[in-house]
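Quick illustration for those who missed Monday's session on complexes.
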Amino acid sequence: MNIVLVEGDITEQRVDAIVNAANSSLLGGGGVDGAIHRRGGPAILEECRALRASRYGRGLPAGQAVETTAGRLPARWVIHTVGPVYSPDEDRSHLLASCYRESLAVADRLGAATVAFPAISTGVYRWPMEDAARIALTTVRMATVQMSTVRQAGSALREVRFVLFSNAAYAAFETALAEPA
Ligand code: AR6
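Prediction with AR6 bound:
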């Protein structure tokens, strides 16, 4: 399983699944969420509305993940996850880690070989980039090791790609990736 860093726009990634940093409403927003819905078209929102009506009447809780179609995007699925809002007073890193773990579990269940993540919670939800990068990489490394040891047949997952929207975000992930696992 490879971890790859790229600087770019997640909506342009040709992967099986892209992860959306959504909010609990699942009904869209700004940032990466806005970009995904804009470029993916109305089919994604339609499925999100159906999920609200069926399984998530109170919204998708922070740390959980659920998939929809990717509409017109060059991916097969969008996995929506809700990051925690950063708080200087309360450690919510378990919720941020859970976003990565749960999204990978959904990707694995779908049989995705390639998955792209944005830097969840580092925009509107204000999580400091260096810390978010460390949590993201530690969690993905641990989860993929577990997936390959727990599943006898092996997971289809071959690549986890982090798509970073700025040079500073890319540099933070590069530093965290260079740290010993
Ligand atoms: N591709 C990759 N990364 C992007 C893109 C893109 N097209 N656009 C932004 N980013 P944010 P959050 C980066 O705010 O902090 C939404 O309104 C961005 O630079 O999208 O989890 C939701 O509806 C930042 O580093 O998500 C929620 O209400 C990272 O993606 C709320 O924002 C995440 O920024 C979620 O906040």
